[in-house]
From TrEMBL, chain A:
Source species: Sphingobium cupriresistens
Gene name tied to this protein: urtD
Pfam families hit by this protein: ABC_tran
Entry protein name: Urea ABC transporter ATP-binding protein UrtD
Keyword Transport attributed: yes
PROSITE patterns assigned: ABC_TRANSPORTER_2 (PS50893)
Record Gene3D superfamilies: P-loop containing nucleotide triphosphate hydrolases (3.40.50.300)
Annotated CDD domains: ABC_Mj1267_LivG_branched
From TrEMBL, chain B:
Principal location: membrane
Upper taxonomic lineage: Bacteria, Pseudomonadati, Pseudomonadota, Alphaproteobacteria, Sphingomonadales
Protein name: Urea ABC transporter permease subunit UrtC
Membrane topology: Multi-pass membrane protein
CDD domains, alphabetized: TM_PBP1_LivM_like
UniProt keywords, alphabetically: Cell membrane, Membrane, Transmembrane, Transmembrane helix
Gene Ontology CC terms, in alphabetical order: plasma membrane
Subcellular location: Cell membrane
Transmembrane segments annotated in the record for this chain: 12-30, 36-55, 102-129, 141-159, 190-210, 230-257, 277-301, 313-333
Cited InterPro entries: ABC_transp_permease, ABC_transptr_urea_perm_UrtC, LivM-like
Molecular function as annotated in GO: branched-chain amino acid transmembrane transporter activity
Length: 252, 342
């Protein structure tokens, strides 16, 4: 976080407190993300990881502090306006739209003009069509494009939702437990998918699975009881006595 | 459930089959039966709107009778005025002690205003009402209860203002519409054709709408309103527009029904009739436009047959039918024909 990288700063969570009538899910929490960075947030259950995503995407409103995206405050904006500015989130439980085809799910995500009066028609612009086909290919669902999303296997649903989040063209992707319920092979593939995004997107990943976090080889932010605890590489965080005490559950 | 996939070929044929029956009916039915069929078809127009909002939008309305009534009363006001010698006011107003028309009756003497009112008033009321509820993110069962309250309030209002609405008896004794005598057989079959054409237009328009991106988004918001919101869409306007369209169809259906039935009254538009409207669509199939038309026709045919023989039995029978369909045929009769929701 060098001072010279101000122009690279994409997201800044600045002293945010989320107060659920006395229980502080986030307690004066701050972090920043630079353009193109991939960051993993870990922490024990109840550390406030999902609440952090909720705050950035506008699902909960901070009682104190600010969320700055590209230098502008977004913590009071309606959800769809936050999304319109270039943030999209994958939820913990797969949030695909079950009765729509896989392709229609992605088509909704890839759509640029989301105003209702522009929805009376069936034609899809060529660039959106291309984005949908690319998204299908990236998660290996091309052969499943026509089936109802509700009939996909659990892992496929997770991938579809990741692909939807990617297809929105958002600059900042929030991936809340993208590997939940996946086996080791699927987890590896998900890591490859995220790594494949390269520098074009900024990604905030929340996950418990340490092998997945290792494969991402990204800087790690550790949260504990709604507060910032540590930040560093996975090796540094593993070696940290304080982190071990609260999270890894064994003595360093 | 037995394998019914072999019936799938029926799916694209069903609307054409219905159209064929509709075209033949005027030559095969007596004037009385044709009038009955036309009434049921007017109800079918309302039922199409329920497929849009309930089947595809997940919005259960127990208050469609309100919009049906707005359309029905609009045409009724016009016919009451059209039949009056100039300077006089409708007889029920005289009996209630009024000596002049209420100001809001006056513009209904114009046919153009009346047609505009039939199209616009239910649509506008539906849009404003649903926006007020949906933008507060109230939905599901709460919305259904609010619509039921709306139906109760509307019918109560009409009953309580007998001097200007005709009260519990409603408005009846119409003699002509837009210069055509209602007692002449030509007017009866003419109105039948008008109803058939409107039903077809509504069917084709909704079919197009449901296949468009609007329809896709409506189903998306039904299945995961939050997911849609977090993809950057505001679901509220989509739901409001769908509800307004359904209200418009209900209003058109109500106006046509009033022309065929020769009466509009609170008993036709209150809480119980509003629930019956939902039952037609549940039985016919709430995901299917053709299914909803079939539901409206069959249930009303059965109602007509049963209630003329055993008046008390009908409500029980409808209740049993409803429970049967909801538990065993969630897609209604259309589910027997169709493999998938469309």
């Amino acid at each position: 976080m060098s001072g010279s990288a101000v122009s690279d700063l994409l997201l800044s969570v600045d002293g945010v407190t989320i107060d659920y009538s006395g229980f502080k899910a986030l307690d004066n929490f701050s972090m920043t993300l630079n353009r193109g960075e991939t960051r993993v947030v870990i922490g024990p259950n109840g550390a406030g990881k999902s609440t952090l995503c909720d705050t950035i995407i506008g699902r909960v409103r901070p009682s104190q502090g600010r969320v700055l995206f590209k230098g502008e405050e977004i913590q009071r904006l309606p959800e769809q306006q936050i999304v319109a500015r270039g943030i999209c989130r994958k939820f913990q439980a797969p949030g695909v739209l079950p009765t729509l085809s896989v392709r229609d799910n992605l088509g909704l995500a890839a759509r640029k003009d989301r105003r209702w009066w522009k929805s009376f028609g069936a034609g899809i612009p060529a660039d959106e069509k291309r984005a949908v086909e690319e998204a299908l290919e990236s998660v290996g669902l091309t052969h499943r494009a026509g089936v109802e999303a509700g009939t996909l296997a659990h892992g496929e649903k997770q991938w579809l939702e990741i692909a939807m989040v990617m297809a929105t063209g958002a600059e900042l992707l929030l991936l809340d437990e993208p590997t939940a319920g996946m086996g080791p092979a699927e987890t590896s593939r998900t890591a490859q998918l995220i790594l494949g995004l390269g520098d074009s997107r900024t990604v905030l990943v929340i996950d418990h699975d340490m092998s997945f976090v290792e494969q991402l080889a990204a800087p790690v932010t550790v949260m504990h009881q709604g507060k910032f605890l540590k930040q560093g590489s996975i090796a540094e965080v593993r070696a940290d006595a304080e982190v071990a005490a609260v999270y890894l559950g064994h003595t360093a | 459930m037995p394998d019914l996939s072999r019936l799938d070929p029926l799916k694209p044929v069903l609307p054409w089959l219905l159209l064929a029956l509709g075209l033949v009916a005027p030559f095969a039915l007596s004037a009385y039966d044709l009038n009955l069929l036309a009434r049921f078809m007017a109800m079918g127009i309302l039922a199409l709107g329920l497929v849009l909002i309930w089947g595809h939008g997940g919005i259960l309305s127990l208050g469609q009778g309100v919009f049906f009534g707005l359309g029905g009363y609009a045409i009724a006001l016009h016919m009451k005025l059209a039949d009056l010698p100039s300077g006089e006011i409708p007889d029920f107003m005289v009996w209630s002690g009024r000596d002049s028309l209420p100001f809001w009756w006056i513009p209904f003497s114009s046919p153009a205003f009346t047609i505009a009112a039939i199209l616009i008033v239910p649509t506008l009321v539906g849009a404003l009402f649903s926006w007020a509820v949906f933008h507060r993110r109230v939905g599901g069962t709460y919305f259904a209860l609010i619509t039921q309250a709306l139906a109760l309030a509307f019918s109560t209002l009409i009953i309580s203002r007998q001097d200007v609405t005709g009260g519990f008896n409603g408005l009846t004794d119409f003699y002509s519409v837009f210069g055509f005598g209602l007692s002449s057989p030509g007017t009866g079959s003419g109105l039948y054709w008008v109803t058939l054409v409107v039903l077809c237009i509504a069917f084709v328009a909704l079919r197009w709408l449901l296949a468009s991106r609007f329809g896709i988004l409506l189903r998306a918001a039904r299945d995961g309103e939050n997911r849609v919101r977090f993809l950057g869409y505001s679901p509220t306007p989509f739901k409001v527009v769908a509800f307004a369209i359904a209200a418009m169809l209900a209003g058109i259906g109500g106006a046509l029904f009033t022309l065929h039935a020769g009466v509009v009254s609170p008993a036709l538009i209150g809480v119980v009739p509003s629930i019956e409207m939902v039952v037609w669509v549940a039985i016919g199939g709430r995901y299917s436009l053709a299914g909803a038309i079939v539901g409206a026709l069959l249930v009303n045919l059965a109602r007509d047959a049963v209630s003329s023989a055993f008046p008390e039995l009908w409500l029980y029978l409808m209740g049993v039918l409803f429970i049967f369909v909801v538990t065993l045929l969630p897609r209604g009769l259309a589910g027997l024909v169709q493999g998938k929701a469309a």
